[in-house]
Amino acid sequence: MEGYHLVELCNQESPEVEKVHSKMQMLEKNTREKIMKIEQVLVNINSMTETTNSRLNTLEMDNVELKKDMEA
């Protein structure tokens, strides 16, 4: 008789467990999507940083040439 109550209890908790499992899956999906968005932002920032560094190097080289021209 005690085994029957355990099975009945498990059956009553099953919808609760399913709700928790479903909510957990949704949270995991949302977390993965947020991580993908953050990774894309990081890729974009890295690209902008590389572009900025390249432009800075060009400006520095131009500055060196201008200083040479002024000294001549």
From TrEMBL:
InterPro entries (alphabetical): PIR2-like (IPR046934)
Superkingdom of source: Eukaryota
Record-linked PANTHER family: E3 UBIQUITIN-PROTEIN LIGASE RF298, OS05G0141500 PROTEIN
Protein name in UniProt: Uncharacterized protein
Organism: Solanum commersonii (Commerson's wild potato)
